Amino acid sequence: MSSSLRRGVLAAAAIAFSVASLAACGAGNDAQTLEIKPDNAATSVGNIKIQNAIVITQPDLESTGPAAISATFFNSGTTAETLESITLPGTGKEAELKPAKGGSLSIPAGGSLVLGGKDNATAMLPSSREAVRDGNAQKVTFTFSKTGDVSLRAFVVPAKHYFAEWGPTEVPAAPGGSASPSGSPSGSPSGSPAGTESPAAGETPGGHESPGTPTDAASASATAGAGAGRLSPRRTAVRKGGTSWEVPPFAFVVRGRLTARTCSPGRGP
Fold it and tell me: Where is the composition biased (Low complexity) (predicted)?
């Protein structure tokens, strides 16, 4: 065997040995990473394992509505188990359990049960502010049909942000809020305000009399409010060349000029 071939064999053997030694450092049954526990409450007794246990209160501190208990249960046994009750030791409070629509509170063998959240089973604590306080680690006891009592400490958090969709479905309004008026006032004011008279012909609403013999410009300004092509609601006096003209009611006025028939000089309509 040549020297170059021997060097190649030795290099390959060295690489294989290093790979084998590194593989021996892999995670085993007693790896340190297995000793790390998550922040959320979790425990196991017998075939039952509980994960993500948490108590979720109302989002408003002033609200006295119910709180929800959320958790996930796993059954590693060969027979099904049923969640029978959830209590808070030392408070005298017990959660009201309700299965999901068309489901039950049974944990099948090799299966799981989710408590809390949309379309899942629920556990509600009435008058939660009397039993739990946000930020505490509340002791909670779960009772199963075969395993019995399993206790742990679950964090108490308000139903905000991520926990909103897992919190209580009933969120009453906070007390002390101002009530909004209901309905609308009935009826409407009838008639015109007392003591107010309609201006007579030849007077303006402000109480100032208009000149008895207005000029053409004054007549045009008096009828400008009616607009071009609209009906004039009252008689309008027009003076031109020393002769008084009276415009009949509802005569058309276009740019200050009469477009309907008028009366003869000195005569009424």
Answer: 173-202, 210-225
